[in-house]
Design brief:
Layout (H helix, E strand, L loop, with lengths): L10 E3 L11 E3 L5 E6 L2 E6 L6 E7 L5 E6 L8 E6 L4 E5 L4 E6 L6 E6 L6 E6 L4 E5 L4 E5 L6 E6 L6 E6 L4 E5 L5 E6 L6 E6 L25 H7 L4 E6 L3 E6 L4 E7 L22 E2 L7 E5 L5 E5 L8 E3 L13 E9 L2 E8 L3 E6 L4 E7 L5 E6 L6 E6 L4 E5 L9 E4 L7 E6 L6 E6 L4 E5 L7 E2 L8 E7 L17 E6 L4 E4 L9 E2 H9 L8 E6 L5 E6 L3 E6 L4 E7 L5 E6 L12 E6 L4 E5 L1 H5 L6 E3 L4 E3 L6 E6 L6 E6 L4 E5 L4 E6 L6 E6 L7 E5 L4 E4 L16 H10 L39 E2 L2 E2 L1 H5 L63 H6 L4 H15 L5 H10 L10 H17 L3 H10 L3 H11 L4 H6 L5 H17 L3 H10 L3 H10 L3 H11 L5 H17 L2 H10 L3 H8 L5 H14 L2 H17 ...
Parallel strand pairs: 45-49
Antiparallel strand pairs: 1-57, 2-3, 3-4, 4-5, 6-7, 7-8, 8-9, 10-11, 11-12, 12-13, 14-15, 15-16, 16-17, 18-19, 19-20, 20-21, 22-23, 23-24, 24-25, 26-27, 27-28, 28-29, 30-31, 31-32, 32-33, 34-35, 35-36, 36-37, 38-39, 39-40, 40-41, 42-43, 43-44, 44-45, 46-47, 47-48, 48-50, 51-52, 52-53, 53-54, ...
Length: about 1500
């Protein structure tokens, strides 16, 4: 099966089934699979009576899937068909989840589809224009029929006759066609008066079995029928139809009429989970199961399912499914029903608007299981730290799900919470100690707290964010909440971060109180005056001591609670921070809890170790620019991170590239890559109870549970196109909807949008709005899901005038909207030779009277008679003139003023009906009703510049009112600049500026503000800062910097210039900061610029940048030493340069015969002017406060060389000030940096350059009474001897090395499981034997002899060389320090015990998980003690108290050693013993017997197998 394939998810919460489709779900013939359409794909489930499992998805359509059907032909259950709004009908193979074939014959939206049960390759589909297409996919043949010019709502093929197809239409007609006779209409069934939602054939052939349906007095339908009609009797069968008119009708095929009508009962809704104010459309679906041919199942008004017995006599009663237990029914209307047989049970499956898929047992009419689904983007996932296994899911369908992932009987035990949310749930966070307390944040800026164990509505904070809430975190209170007593304040408070860049602190005890902006605390504690960056992410360290805040500019700030003192700023990312996560604090290595991972829009995950900053807080905040680890691989923005609580240094990240990646952070290695989602991943959580399970959510509306070890790939796909581009490409293929022509001479119909019905699985907002990212909309996501309009109703056929076009659905109530139709009349010009030269005749302002004056001569004469009669009537004008002109208004032009007014009113109405309001307004002005014309034009939104220009004639107040109304009209027409100009005419400068600012016309708004307002007006500064913020988000950094400069904020201008991070931007930012007087900021940017130049090996450019600041003289000395050191090492060629760039060195004149220290000192004095000890001391103090992360095997060589250069600079400055203690410490740090990085070649070269030969001359200059300085010297002396020792090993003759290599390798392989004592005894035996031979034979015997038996003439030089090696080997005796060996042995014991503790805890968690998934009997039988997993050396179990006792004893032993021994680094003593023994065993250099005995003594006293194996590994690598 598909779900069992490698890399497939273990469990899936799928997307919700599509709504308002007549057949978008179906079950396979063999009863194994159930499929339903979800958005633009089909979800397949393996159906069981117990719990369903996810089988896979059919992916291929580009728009909403509108129909789905399995092939019910025997032996073809692995095939199915689907239709979509993209116009395609696809045939699928569910075993391979691949498309078999497809066709795109439909030109309109497909509304119905069914696979014929009688033919294995016939798929029938219908569209909204009434076209029916029959497609035989095996032969790629098709036929097209047009039985009725109506909108098809549903269709179904007969299960008994291969040529019969029943079709239901939107206007309530049901038609049965015969496809073998070119789609001829066999029956036209009338009775419903509204949409046909569903059709179902009776599963039993014939009509005689259900005789009780015959109505009394009914004539025999066969009497008097023709031969052709008699033949149709053999096709007799019943057909059931469900309609929106709330009835189910059962039709007789032979009688061509309804034999039964079932009216839906009105049931009292129980346990409804949605607001009663939501008016739902009725959808009546019917299902006629094969196993129960006398029963019909149907949906009802509020989600209930009903069963009706068709053979029951008397008054029929409905049976309600799920009535035995409360809450079994759906809570919203049901769209589809289908049945299958599985495991000996008849099951009924239903899909509903409540987003649940339910399985019913037809024998008991009870619900067997419920499969929840999701109706929006999955924005957030959160596991409860108290109720382990409860996963909260924040979804874009305005609901929260809480999934009990540990439920045994129900794998999809999900509770839904919707009250009080009313917006997309974008952030979630569980209370760290209170059970069931869940905080949530929404798209509209709301923050609330839910009690998941009660049915109460959530508590909502009275402080709303202005934009989407992106992050929530529980943490200790900070001022002002932390200032109260213990009983007056909560132990933890809720922090929320939203798109406007503000972090609020909410009091969970008083959510109705005002939330506090922590920026005020940050400013007050750290005395910050400049603008703070917009915050985008917050994360508390698990112990609540440290707060990390991510910012929009890519920086991270580390604060110390509770005063929020700024400790350091991490300048690593250059784009918006999306996720920050702290490592858990129960790692085997305590220093791992100081690691913090971060992800941003630049697709890179950085991990920093800030242990030094937290344990030793600096007096002033420091800036960290180097990461501890860098995780590269994703190709799009990082959206979420999660540390594994079961492993040390294991991290999972999700990205917009559609994949999730599991990393080994310490090794910087990608381990597993998950690619199961079909969209952008938005959130991730590592299961706290299952070490090998991860949960991810994406914008494909799904949550996946997957196992990392089962994934095929180890790293994200390289070069993969982003999801956004794929969505854009698919959108480009969508056909544009054609507008319907309105019939002439009729009242315009209501637009489609007013009676549109959502057809995707959304509720109040049927389309998932674009994914917001800190206030910015992702347009790619928003365009991907445009809600389709409701199927348009077609005009009635000429032969059936009794069926007019249907209006909107009566139950879709919306506020009335007045639509104004303005037809455009075109002036046709007769063709002629000079038609292009003719001018258009102006339109008459009195067209009605003009047209009446062009009638026949007799009618014109009659008008003259009527006019004369009216004018010369004896009765007078007051009575006869009005009556005379009432019927002939066109004569008002020649009578008195009242009749003229009536003429103008008639002309005005004609102008309005023809869409010429400007002519009507002119008539109003002619009448002198200027105010009325202005008021009417304002109400209709038809004010013009001409009317505004004429408005002063009506007075000053009328002019002001007209200008204001015209301004509102222009704003509605989106002519904001013109509206602002009219506001200026009213001297409303502030309103004009605010209007332009609101609609992002910042350039125009600033121009007006600078021209009309005072230069110090705060509005102008607000304009600059607002525009700069938007430009900064859009990436227009240069223009944003100009705005900040205009707002007198040069600090922010420099920061925004540097956001791009390239060389030119950093240079410009540094110069700008220097000009503006921000020297500290300029120093920061200059140093970053110099580092960029250093990475390109351009030391000349780096020195030019640094020389602008006197405070960077110390860094200039570091760069100078780095250049000279790099040049020296390049000549010796020990470093492999990865960059192909050519180094750019200075042309300094140096004496090559001098030592390296003298060369550096000479350059410092001649170029940089460092002559005196006072200058050197100042430089030393400047550089001493700068700390770099410890080197590891993953540190790049170029970066390692810079760290070493920094330490050597400190050493040389101490040398000039005669501070030998600091010099020794700095040299020691430089050597240990290379040692920790595993770069022994570099360590060897540094020792040869800085301390050639030995370091005895340093011992003479140290104070003998200073224990620390002597300890540092001994450590340095040991590392120098360590280099000499390995130099001896590497320089041995090749033959002896190969011989010894084979011997050692075999010895290690043979004795890997034995104790080290046996190995040492064997080594000592061989060594003593070799020593006996050494006393008898001379070293010269091991060198080559001449053929005549005499030694070569170079024996004297060889003897000299051998003597030097013996002296070097003897000097290595400083490595055999028993005190250091004891310390190292104790530390190894501590590490071993900690590892045992970690293994014990992991095994205990695993046992608890296994015990929770077994029954009570297995629990009693299989329960294991806590001490069972861990074993000692003999194989006996070690209990937890024993391990804690060993750990305590080891720590006590370690505490007894002096700090001078513990704190300073020292080479591994046992490793050095092994090397010296093996060097002595080569018979080339005699090992002093005393040293040999000392080595054997140390090895036997502090034996360790791992040390032996590690030393052997170093020997031969």
């Amino acid at each position: 099966m598909a779900a069992a394939a490698a890399g497939a998810p273990e469990r899936v919460l799928p997307a919700s089934p599509n709504w308002y489709c007549s057949r978008c779900s179906d079950a396979s013939e063999d009863g194994s699979l159930f499929g339903f359409a979800a958005r633009n794909s089909i979800c397949l489930l393996v159906v069981r009576s117990g719990v369903p499992t996810f089988h896979g998805e059919l992916v291929g359509h580009t728009e909403r899937v509108s129909g789905f059907s399995f092939c019910h032909y025997p032996g073809q259950s692995n095939y199915c068909a689907s239709s979509s709004d993209d116009g395609a009908v696809k045939i699928w193979d569910v075993q391979t989840l691949a498309t078999v074939t497809e066709h795109t014959l439909h030109q309109n939206i497909i509304s119905a589809l069914h696979w014929s049960p009688q033919m294995k390759d016939l798929v029938v589909s219908g569209d909204e224009k009434g076209i029916v297409i029959c497609y035989w996919h095996n032969r790629s043949n098709s036929q097209q029929f047009f039985p009725e010019p109506r909108t098809i709502f549903c269709l179904t093929c007969s299960p008994h006759h291969e040529n019969l197809v029943a079709i239901g239409y939107k206007d309530g007609i049901v038609v049965i066609i015969d496809i073998s006779r070119k789609g001829e209409v066999v029956h036209r069934l009338r009775g419903h008066d509204d949409e046909i939602h569903s059709l179902a054939w009776c599963p039993v052939l014939g009509e005689e079995g259900l005789s009780s349906w015959q109505e009394e007095g009914q004539e025999d339908a066969i009497n008097g029928c023709s031969l052709e009609e008699v033949a149709t009797v053999t096709k007799s069968c019943y057909l059931a139809s469900g309609s929106k008119d709330q009835t189910i009708r059962v039709w007789s095929y032979t009688r061509n009429r309804a034999v039964m009508t079932l009216k839906l009962p009105f049931l009292k809704r129980r346990g409804g989970s949605f607001e009663s104010a939501v008016k739902e459309r009725l959808w009546l679906t019917v299902h006629w199961p094969r196993s129960q041919p006398t029963q019909i199942f149907s949906s009802c008004f509020g989600g209930e399912l009903l069963q009706s017995d068709l053979v029951q006599t008397g008054k029929r009663k409905w049976v309600l499914l799920g009535s035995s237990t409360e809450g079994q029914n759906h809570s919203r209307i049901v769209f589809n029903l289908c049945s299958l047989r599985s495991e000996g049970r008849e099951l009924l499956l239903s899909i509903s608007m409540d987003r649940d898929v339910k399985c019913w047992d037809l024998a008991t009419l009870d619900c067997r299981w419920t499969m929840p689904s999701l109706g929006g983007f999955v924005y957030s996932l959160a596991f409860s730290p108290v109720d382990t296994g409860c996963l909260a899911i924040g979804v874009g369908d305005n609901m929260i799900r809480v999934w009990n992932t540990l439920s045994i009987n129900n794998h999809y035990d999900v509770k839904t919470f919707w009250q009080g949310i009313k917006s997309k749930v974008t952030a979630l966070s569980w209370h760290p100690t209170k059970e069931g307390c869940l905080a949530f944040g929404t798209d509209d800026g709301k923050v609330g707290i839910y009690d998941t164990y009660s049915n109460k509505p959530p508590q909502i904070s009275s402080s709303y964010h202005k934009k989407t809430v992106y992050a929530l975190a529980w943490g200790p209170p900070v001022p002002p909440l932390s200032l109260g007593g213990d009983g007056d304040r909560p132990s933890v408070t809720l922090y929320s971060c939203a798109g406007e860049g503000i972090v609020f602190q909410h009091n969970p005890w008083k959510l109705n109180g005002e939330a506090h902006d922590i920026n005020k605390v940050i400013r007050g504690t750290n005395a910050i005056k400049h603008k703070l960056p917009a915050h985008t992410e917050i994360s508390w360290k698990p112990d609540g001591s440290i707060l990390a805040i991510g910012n929009e500019d890519g920086s991270m700030e580390i604060f110390q609670a509770p005063e929020l003192k700024l400790l350091c700023t991490i300048q690593q990312h250059h784009k918006l921070i999306n996720a920050i996560r702290w490592h858990h604090d129960h790692a085997a290595q305590p220093e791992l809890s100081y690691m913090i991972a971060s992800g941003s829009n630049n697709a890179v995950v950085y991990v920093h170790n800030i242990k030094n900053v937290i344990e030793n807080p600096p007096e002033r905040p420091v800036t960290i620019t180097e990461p501890f680890r860098t995780l590269l691989g994703h190709t799009a923005k990082i959206t979420s991170l999660s540390w594994s609580p079961h492993h040390d240094g294991r991290l999972v990240s999700v990205s917009y590239d559609g994949t999730a990646e599991v990393w080994d952070v310490l090794k910087e290695e990608p381990l597993h890559n998950y690619r199961g989602h079909r969209g952008r991943l938005l959130c991730v959580q590592w299961s706290p109870v299952e070490a090998d399970c991860i949960y991810t959510g994406a914008d494909d509306f799904c949550v996946h549970k997957w196992v990392p070890a089962k994934q095929e790939h180890s790293r994200p796909p390289q070069g993969k196109k982003s999801i956004e581009l794929e969505k854009k490409r698919s959108l480009a293929l969508k056909p544009k909807a054609k507008k319907k022509k309105k019939p002439l001479g009729k009242v315009p119909a209501v637009p489609d949008s007013e009676c549109a019905v959502p057809t995707v699985n959304e509720d109040e907002d049927a389309v998932e709005t674009p994914l917001e990212e800190n206030g910015l909309l992702d347009q790619e996501a928003g365009k991907a899901q445009q809600e389709p309009e409701e199927r348009p109703s077609t005009e009635g056929h000429k032969d059936s005038p009794t069926h007019p076009p249907l209006a909107c659905a009566p139950d879709v109530q919306k506020p009335p909207v007045t639509f104004r139709i303005l037809p455009v009349r075109k002036e046709h010009i007769k063709p002629g030779p000079d038609s292009s030269m003719k001018r258009k005749k102006p339109r008459s302002i009195l067209p009605l009277s003009t047209s009446l004056d062009h009638r026949s001569k007799e009618e014109l004469h009659q008008d003259c008679m009527r006019l004369a009669t009216c004018l010369h009537s004896k009765a007078g004008q007051k009575e006869d003139l009005p009556s005379c002109s009432r019927d002939h208004v066109h004569l008002g032009l020649f009578t008195n003023r009242p009749t003229l007014y009536r003429l103008m009113e008639a002309e005005g109405r004609s102008h309005l009906e023809n869409g010429h309001p400007e002519l009507f307004q002119q008539l109003m002005i002619w009448k002198g009703e200027l105010k009325g014309a202005l008021q009417l034009a304002a109400e209709r939104g038809e004010l013009t510049d001409q009317l505004v220009a004429l408005s002063p004639m009506a007075g000053y107040q009328a002019w002001m009112w007209t200008v204001e109304a015209f301004t509102k009209q222009l704003c509605f027409q989106e002519q904001y600049v013109k509206a602002a100009s009219h506001l200026l005419s009213l001297h409303k400068v502030y309103e004009a500026v605010e209007l332009l600012k609101t609609h992002s016309f910042f350039r125009e708004a600033i121009a007006i503000a600078k021209a009309r307002l005072h230069p110090e007006d705060p509005v102008l500064k607000d304009l600059y800062t607002s525009w700069a913020a938007i430009l900064e988000k859009d990436g227009h950094y240069s223009l944003a910097a100009k705005c900040y400069l205009g707002a007198a904020a040069p600090y922010d201008a420099a920061k925004v210039l540097s956001k791009k991070g390239d060389l030119t931007s950093l240079k410009a930012a540094a110069e700008l900061s220097l000009i503006a007087g921000e020297k500290e900021l300029s120093v920061t940017f200059s140093f970053r610029c110099a580092q960029e130049l250093l990475s390109a090996k351009n030391w000349v450019g780096a020195q030019e940048v640094l020389q602008q600041h006197e405070s960077l003289l110390g860094q200039r000395l570091v760069f100078c030493l780095h250049e000279l050191l790099h040049k020296c090492l390049s000549e010796r060629n020990p470093v492999q340069n990865r960059s192909p760039s050519i180094p750019c060195y200075h042309s300094w004149v140096v004496n090559q015969d001098c030592s390296f220290i003298e060369i550096v000192t000479t350059v410092w004095q001649s170029i940089f002017g460092v002559h005196t000890a006072e200058q050197a001391q100042n430089m030393f103090e400047q550089l001493q406060n700068i700390q770099y992360p410890p080197a590891t095997s993953n540190t790049p060589p170029q970066q390692l060389l810079f760290y070493v250069s920094h330490e050597l600079t400190l050493a040389l400055l101490s040398h000039q000030t005669a501070s030998w203690k600091e010099a020794v410490k700095a040299i020691l740090r430089a050597v240990t940096q290379s040692y920790d990085a595993g770069n022994f070649t570099l360590m060897h070269e540094i020792c040869n350059i800085i301390v050639p030969g030995d370091c005895d001359h340093l011992r003479e200059k140290l104070d003998s009474s200073d224990i620390q300085s002597l300890s540092a010297y001994r450590s340095l002396q040991a590392f120098v001897a360590y280099v000499q020792l390995y130099n001896l090993w590497w320089n041995f003759p090749g033959d002896s090395l190969i011989l010894e290599h084979g011997t050692l390798t075999s010895e290690v392989c043979n004795n890997e499981q034995s104790t080290l004592g046996c190995q040492i005894s064997c080594a000592s035996t061989s060594s003593s034997t070799e020593g006996i031979h050494d006393t008898e034979a001379r070293p010269e015997e091991f060198f080559h002899k001449k053929d005549d038996g005499t030694s070569s003439e170079t024996d004297s030089s060889i003897n000299l060389n051998l003597l030097k090696k013996r002296q070097a080997l003897s000097s290595c005796g400083v490595l055999l320090s028993e005190q250091h060996a004891a310390v190292q042995s104790v530390r190894r014991d501590i590490s071993r015990v900690q590892q045992s503790l970690a293994t014990l805890i992991h095994q205990h968690q695993k046992n608890n998980l296994q015990q929770s998934t077994t029954d009570e009997q297995d629990l009693v039988e299989t329960q294991l003690p806590l001490s069972s997993p861990s074993m000692n050396e003999v194989g006996e179990p070690i209990s937890l108290p024993d391990l804690m006792k060993q750990l305590t004893e080891a720590n006590q032993k370690l505490a007894e050693f002096p700090s001078s021994i513990k704190d300073l680094p020292f080479p591994d003593v046992l490793e050095c013993c092994l090397v010296m023994l093996h060097v002595g065993a080569q018979r080339v250099v005699d090992l002093d017997p005393e040293l040999r005995e000392q080595c054997l003594h140390l090895l036997q006293k502090f034996r360790a197998n791992d040390v032996y194996r590690e030393a052997c590994r170093k020997f031969f690598t």
